[in-house]
TrEMBL record:
Its EC number is 4.3.2.10. It is found in: Cytoplasm. The active site is at residues 11, 130. It is an enzyme of class 4 (lyase). This is Imidazole glycerol phosphate synthase subunit HisF. It comes from Lederbergia graminis.
């Protein structure tokens, strides 16, 4: 059985790591390069960086951050946020990232996923899906930092992203983001069962138990978390130890 992955997520704005609730109210948490190195040294299987300012200035800042991180860490890392073109992808990969995350740009022009997969390989393309539960019981895709309803069913969109060539999916529950009351297990399970590519659970992790729970109750390949690691609530090694004690296969690193 493939080992489950623990992935710290660093939201970067103007060169600093920040964290909010429901994609709003950002607090500064620290330096992305120093934090990335600490997580890499302490057992993270991968890292994810999201450039949440994603302006032209933000993109330039992020390229510098990517170069510095690549020199300091020994685990794969993904960079997302504001990536709109094949040239943007090339710039981030050339700076040292292993993968790129694409969200709003794929909604606007789905062919970008296909073009990117063909040029760089599916394994380097992570399709991010920000999903919100609506009163009719469906999850809809949200864009622009979780603010705009794209009017697309999130489960059907996940299937389409796989068909277009995405190598993995990163679904985030907008409702759960930063709230710390656990992953949206129903959303996660629905997407995992709809596709045949790796899925990374994201949005809502508040403690180590939530990570064990998402592994026990869904067949996700990885769990992404931010607040619990940034605030030193628990270490990556402590999470892995709890997983092992509960029979979840995680890497030894």
């Amino acid at each position: 059985m493939t080992a489950k992955k623990i992935i710290p997520c660093l939201d970067v704005k103007d060169g600093k790591v920040v964290k909010g609730i429901n994609f709003e109210g950002m607090r500064e948490m620290g330096d992305p390069v120093a934090m990335a190195k600490a997580y890499s040294d302490n057992g993270a299987d991968e890292l994810v960086f999201l450039d949440i300012s994603a302006t032209t200035e933000g993109r330039d800042t992020m390229v510098d951050v990517v170069k510095q991180v690549a020199a300091q860490v020994n685990v794969p890392f993904t960079v997302g946020g504001g990536i709109r073109t094949v040239d943007d992808i090339a710039r981030i990969l050339d700076a040292g990232a292993d993968k790129v995350g694409i969200n709003s740009a794929a909604v606007a022009r789905p062919e970008l996923i296909k073009e990117a997969a063909e040029k760089f390989g599916s394994e380097r393309i992570v399709a991010a899906v920000d999903a919100k539960l609506f009163p009719d019981g469906t999850w809809r895709v949200m864009t622009h930092g979780g603010l705009k309803d794209a009017g697309i069913d999130a489960i059907e969109w996940s299937k389409q992203l796989e068909q277009l060539g995405a190598g993995s999916l990163l679904p985030t529950s907008v409702d759960r983001d930063g709230v710390k009351d656990g992953y949206d297990l129903e959303l996660t399970k629905a997407i995992v069962e709809a596709v045949n590519i790796p899925v990374i659970a994201s949005g809502g992790c508040g403690n180590a138990e939530h990570i064990v729970e998402v592994f026990e109750k869904t067949n996700v390949d990885a769990a992404l978390a931010a607040s619990i690691f940034h605030e030193n609530s628990v270490s990556i090694q402590e999470v892995k130890e709890l997983c092992r004690n509960r029979g979840v296969n995680v890497s030894e690193a």
